[in-house]
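Inverse folding, one chain.
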């Protein structure tokens, strides 16, 4: 949520701070601010409860500039999202501070400081830290911060300057991430290297308990036990090789491998399929719902298409899935007993937002958001919501957002079934057990990566590909084709396998790879017939087959065996190898995996 940026230099650093805030906007926030000291030692501040653009306007209008500064985007916890609670926060017009995290013992510290004569002008827990630092400050900011943080319980990342010590910044990390950026006669800090892209490519990843002093030409780091230490310097050459990538080359691969944890986090609070998982009053809304209308774009649209199979086969509820940009511009017949479900990773997708507003205008009062960002516009505009807890997703090609959306939609499906037909407790337990086993099952699928890399080498020389699926795996084929085209720039199309004879079969030659999703379900024998149609035309088949399908490697038939059949949740497992195939094909072709040309992570314009 919150974001921190700071810098000390011999130039006006305010534009760097503002740009850093803009890069951190994806985190979500409800206020923002910047404070800076100019060359004459004058400190000034600007804050906004609007967007970073409004803060930038204030800075421009007031000609705020400085060579030492800190900036912040805040998501309110303690204190309302109003201007006087926005960061940076000052103590005695001397100490300026920005803070991410929550101080658990702030009430006791606040009481103690008030007894010592300190006056509080905000409702934040962060103001306690500023006053604490001031209370022990003796013209040595580094020592004051080191002493003050010893009294803090909870999570924090802080950045601090003192008005009478220009060209000096201090920061500390205790539970929230913080990184130091190294420059030539200037240094930076931020909660994410993304904020500093273009300013430096050399970073120190701070460890838990570190306290740091930055000057123009030096970086001093004290560890949790007070010793001065050296930390490794990492070179990060591009935006996409950002901090905490660990062993991964790209965010996309990192996020593919984060899916077991993302799903575990998404279902962590689910002990039963209770309507209240979707918000207060969900039970009443669900009881009066006789159909669903799902609105989404791109990958989120494919999650909706998958859910249509679940909703109609399990919950027996009619479901319509529409591309949001089409829905908003056509005449439709509203059913006011429909539940309108909007799906968006960022919650700021312009066409999905517009589709939601169009639904409101048509009289749809029951709406739900499935989203990864709690503070997003879509969440604020809907009656109900389900947060996917996928964590920040930087790669443009959505991966963990898709699978967590599918989990959310499955939970919705079973909840509606339970409410509409009083599903027995044994079946509920079975569904919960399957959901909880998903992270382990996904880890088994991820172990197939070496085999997929071998396929990717062959794919990297192709310019076209077909993807086939049947039933609820047809949308998974669509998603696989989308991933391949957006990351590797290979033209890819997906079809229901039964449609081969209605046109696509004309494209099949030895030069055309045909990727097939082959779960062991009721459509397997039909799918095998479709596979033979491709083989008869010389097509090269690449099949992801469940272990018990009896589809084996042969001339023109390449098979990767999936670890297990997972029934109704099989689409969540089968999409992961398709993600890996797209990723490794893109790597083999040398494309910019995390930032595909012409694409943006959050499409906030029509």
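Residues assigned per position:
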């Amino acid at each position: 949520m919150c974001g921190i940026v700071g810098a000390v230099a011999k130039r006006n650093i305010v534009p760097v701070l503002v740009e850093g805030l803009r890069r951190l906007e994806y985190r979500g926030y409800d206020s923002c601010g910047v404070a800076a000291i100019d060359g004459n030692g004058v400190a000034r501040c600007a804050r906004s409860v609007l967007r970073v653009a409004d803060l930038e306007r204030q800075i421009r209008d007031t000609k705020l500039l400085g060579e030492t500064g800190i900036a912040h985007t805040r998501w309110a916890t303690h204190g309302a999202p109003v201007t006087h609670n926005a960061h940076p926060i000052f103590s005695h017009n001397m100490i300026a501070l920005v803070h991410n995290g929550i101080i658990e013992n702030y009430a006791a510290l606040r009481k103690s400081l008030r007894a010592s004569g300190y006056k509080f002008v905000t409702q934040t827990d962060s103001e306690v830290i500023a006053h604490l630092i001031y209370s022990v400050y003796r013209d040595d900011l580094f020592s004051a911060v080191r002493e003050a943080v010893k009294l803090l319980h909870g999570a924090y990342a802080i950045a601090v300057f003192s008005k009478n010590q220009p060209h000096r910044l201090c920061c500390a990390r205790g539970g929230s991430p913080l990184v130091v950026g190294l420059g030539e006669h200037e240094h930076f800090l931020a909660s994410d290297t993304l904020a500093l892209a273009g300013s430096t490519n050399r970073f120190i990843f701070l460890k838990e308990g570190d306290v740091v002093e930055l000057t123009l030409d030096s970086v001093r780091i004290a560890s949790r036990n007070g010793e001065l230490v050296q930390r490794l310097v990492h070179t990060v050459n591009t935006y996409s090789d950002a901090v905490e990538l660990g062993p991964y080359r790209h965010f996309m691969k990192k996020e593919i491998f984060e899916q077991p944890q993302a799903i575990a986090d998404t279902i962590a609070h689910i002990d039963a399929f209770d309507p209240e998982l979707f918000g207060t009053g969900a039970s009443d809304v669900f009881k009066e719902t006789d159909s669903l209308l799902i609105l989404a774009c791109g990958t989120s649209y494919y999650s909706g298409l998958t859910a249509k199979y679940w909703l109609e086969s399990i919950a027996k509820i009619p479901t319509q899935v529409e591309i949001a940009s089409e829905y908003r511009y056509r005449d439709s017949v509203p059913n006011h007993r429909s539940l309108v479900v909007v799906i968006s990773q960022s919650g700021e997708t312009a066409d999905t937002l517009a589709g939601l507003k169009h639904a409101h205008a048509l009289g749809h009062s029951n709406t739900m958001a499935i989203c990864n960002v709690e503070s997003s516009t879509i969440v604020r505009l809907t009656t109900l919501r389900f947060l996917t807890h996928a964590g920040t997703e930087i790669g443009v090609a959505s991966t963990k957002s898709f699978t967590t959306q599918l989990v959310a939609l499955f939970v919705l499906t079973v909840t509606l079934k339970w409410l509409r037909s009083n599903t027995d407790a044994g079946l509920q337990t079975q569904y919960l057990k399957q959901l909880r086993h998903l992270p382990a099952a996904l880890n088994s699928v991820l172990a197939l990566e070496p085999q997929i890399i071998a396929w990717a080498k062959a794919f990297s020389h192709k310019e076209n590909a077909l993807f086939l699926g049947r039933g609820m795996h047809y949308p998974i084929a669509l998603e696989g084709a989308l991933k391949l085209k957006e990351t590797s720039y290979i033209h890819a199309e997906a079809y229901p396998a039964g449609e081969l004879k209605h046109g696509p079969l004309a494209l099949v030659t030895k030069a055309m790879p045909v990727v097939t999703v082959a779960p062991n379900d009721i459509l397997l024998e039909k799918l095998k017939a479709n596979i033979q149609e491709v083989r008869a035309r010389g097509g090269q088949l690449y099949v992801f087959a469940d272990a018990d399908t009896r589809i084996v490697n042969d001339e023109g038939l390449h098979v990767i065996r999936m670890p297990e059949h997972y029934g109704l949740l099989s689409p969540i497992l089968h999409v992961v190898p398709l993600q890996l195939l797209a990723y490794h094909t893109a790597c083999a072709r040398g494309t910019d995996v995390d930032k595909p040309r012409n694409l943006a992570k959050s499409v906030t314009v029509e």
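Residues 238-243 have pLDDT under 50 and may be disordered. The first helix runs from residue 14 to 23.
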